[in-house]
Specification:
140 residues, mainly alpha, Ferritin, 4 helices, 69% helix
Length: 140
């Protein structure tokens, strides 16, 4: 894969991580302390770290202007209950799994290993938000 193609894939993933960080921060304000809050915090921390790694990787490839976060993102409806918050978190993790699947398909070496680890981690987080196990997370 050419550096330009790799940069394009990583930029798409970075944009997704910006959105996930925003969403998980917002969801964390809509729940009370407990297991759900802990899972939301864990997801927030994970996506923030993934965002930072992707930004660093893009910089290492010479991308001087990687995509930044939008000022705001649309939040889903139905966040007035724990079930709604969990559903939104599950949808975000499922979206992330698709993005990580794209990274696995498009990368090699340490980028691919990292992408596989991220895909596995998001599949586990999906379970915390009411998801069901699947053979190929990230593949609809």
């Amino acid at each position: 894969m050419s550096d330009d193609a790799l940069i394009a894939v990583l930029r798409t993933a970075l944009s997704g991580e910006h959105a996930a960080v925003y969403l998980f921060a917002a969801l964390s304000t809509r729940t009370t302390p407990g297991a759900l809050a802990g899972s939301l915090r864990g997801a927030y921390d994970f996506h923030r770290a993934a965002r930072d790694i992707l930004a660093e990787r893009l910089a290492a490839l010479g991308d001087s202007a990687p995509p930044g976060a939008a000022p705001a993102y649309d939040l889903p409806d139905g966040l007035g209950s724990a079930a709604g918050v969990s559903a939104a978190a599950l949808a975000a993790e499922q979206s992330s799994a698709g993005g990580y699947g794209d990274l696995v398909a498009a990368t090699t070496g340490s980028d691919r290993s990292r992408s596989i680890a991220w895909l596995s981690a998001t599949a586990v987080r999906e379970l915390h938000f009411g998801g069901t196990p699947s053979d190929l997370p990230g593949i609809a």
